[in-house]
Amino acid sequence: METVLGLSAIACGLLIGLAALGTAIGFGILGGKFLESAARQPEMAPMLQVKMFIVAGLLDAVAMISVVVGFLIMFANPFIQ
């Protein structure tokens, strides 16, 4: 039983940590590509900004889903009978 709880805690930490890392990398790439494209074609910057915010919301939603799954494993563990 203690092994299951310990491995669940490790899995929860890895899940939340890797989600945060992936989101940070994704936001960095997204922001960099937005700045490159806005510098290349300034007249399209408002349209690109709207699309950037939509993708940023989807990117953030993936991280929030993984945090919820991590908390589910931590506090309402389905592996414990």
List the helices and strands and how they pair.
Blueprint: H1 2-40, H2 45-75
Notes on the structure:
The chain is an all-alpha fold. The chain has one domain (2-75): F1F0 ATP synthase subunit C (F1FO ATP Synthase). The protein is built from 2 helices and no strands. Helix 1 runs antiparallel to helix 2 (45-75). The radius of gyration is 18 Å and the shape is elongated. The N and C termini lie close together (10 Å). InterPro entries: ATP_synth_csu_bac/chlpt, ATP_synth_F0_csu, ATP_synth_F0_csu_DDCD_BS, ATP_synth_F0_csu_sf, ATPase_proteolipid_c-like_dom, F/V-ATP_Csub_sf. One of its GO terms (molecular function) is lipid binding. It is found in: Cell membrane. The chain crosses the membrane at residues 6-31, 52-76.
Instruction: Return the structural class.
Output: mainly alpha
- Round the mean pLDDT to the nearest integer and report it: 90
Spell the H/E element sequence: HH
CATH architecture annotation: Up-down Bundle
How many separate domains? 1
Entry summary:
The protein has helices at residues 2-40, 45-75.
Jot down its keywords:
81 residues; mainly alpha; F1FO ATP Synthase; 2 helices; 0% strand; membrane; lipid-binding; cell membrane
